[in-house]
Write a structure and sequence with these properties.
Strand content: under 5%
Number of strands: 6
Shape: elongated
Number of helices: 12
Structural class: mainly alpha
Order of helices and strands: HHHHEEEEEEHHHHHHHH
Length: 348
């Protein structure tokens, strides 16, 4: 391979397939329909703009103002997170010689402090991108590129969910659940009021349709959101969850192997997704630190396990040094190989 740069495959153009925008268009239409139903048939009804001032229910009007303001704030955050989830590239392997895959002889020479290796001990590489893979990186066949810390490919945002846009995707779920739960519980008042015999058919239909649609979507997204909360607290991606909980070949995985080696504790795991400053955790900006290439820090479970192993070896070494001299003072054998039982072989 004479010229490595010229041998690199051409990068696919983002958003080059207009047909894949159909799910995005469907989501936008759903958001628009629910917004119009809630605003026109619930909020404006609560404000009682068509009722004379002396006959208005002031308590209902106050609730309507609070609900309308809250609804618009959360909806605005939802739309910002949705746009950022679509436009933000999830991250890909850098274009430099350290990651360029030329032949297997480089696998051992350039280990880059990686933890995920092939069974042979060689570095993982992508045959489509012609690059070595960093930890937690996987190739997306839809996007036709390797994605850093890939969680999954989401057709609803026409993008992969990875290192650089996972926070926006997580917040998108959060604000979607908040909006849907708000619609479900606050619009019940309009649903009950729509059973009045004087209610126009269109008002009754759209209120019931909006309530039914929000309940259906609320159950789905709330369940999905709690699943991603669990993944975040466990420092695990969807792909890693599937690999650990549903291994290939039906092999049983021990409880210890099911835990993530990148676990940094609940607070550390949250910070690795939402950022280091808790004040900006729920703001669609201020992404977490890191480059998406290395995930082993002093706080990860893998590092702590290695340190614990070193501590055990250190105590064992001290015990081996003290016991022969102690026995020698009593006239026993001073040969450490004869006086000490065989010690377990710890491997770091």
């Amino acid at each position: 391979m004479v010229n490595g740069a010229s041998s690199m495959p051409a990068k696919p153009r983002r958003f080059g397939e207009p047909a894949k925008f159909l799910p995005v268009l469907f989501v936008c239409c759903t958001i628009g329909i629910l917004y119009l139903i809630y605003f026109i048939y619930h909020c404006l009804g609560m404000l009682q703009g068509d009722v004379p001032a002396d006959r208005r229910d002031d308590d209902m009007r106050s609730r309507g103002i609070v609900q309308m303001i809250s609804f618009h704030i959360v909806t605005a955050m939802l739309l910002i997170c949705y746009v950022r989830s679509i436009l933000e590239h999830p991250g890909e392997i850098p274009d430099n010689e350290a990651w360029e895959y030329t032949n297997e002889s480089q696998s051992h020479a350039l280990n880059m402090n990686l933890q995920e290796m092939k069974k042979s001990g060689d570095r993982r590489h992508c045959k489509w991108c012609a690059k070595f893979k960093p930890d937690r990186c996987h190739h997306c066949r839809v996007c036709r590129t390797c994605i850093l810390k890939m969680d999954h490919h989401c057709p609803w945002i026409y993008n992969c969910v990875g290192f650089k846009n996972y926070k926006y995707f997580f917040l998108l779920l959060l604000y979607s659940v908040i909006v849907l739960q708000m619609i479900i519980w606050t619009m019940l008042e309009s649903v009950f009021r729509s059973w009045d015999i004087d209610t126009p058919f269109a008002t009754m239909f759209f209120v019931l349709f909006g309530e039914t649609l929000s309940v259906f979507l609320g159950i789905l997204l709330t369940t999905f959101f709690f699943f991603h909360i669990w993944l975040m607290l466990k420092s695990m991606t969807t792909i890693e969850f599937c690999e650990k909980k549903m291994p290939k070949g039906g092999k049983e995985v021990s409880q210890a192997d099911q835990a993530s080696v990148y676990d940094m504790g609940p607070c550390g795991n949250i910070s690795s997704v939402l950022g280091n400053n808790p004040l900006f955790w729920f703001v669609p900006g201020f992404p977490p630190d890191g480059d998406g290439l290395s995930y082993v820090t002093p706080q990860t479970r893998l590092t702590k396990d290695l340190e614990a192993g070193r501590g055990i070896r250190r105590k064992t070494h001290q015990k081996q040094q003290r016991l022969p001299s102690h026995r020698g003072q009593r006239g026993g054998s001073t040969n450490s190989e004869e006086s000490l039982p065989s010690m377990p072989n710890f491997q770091g």
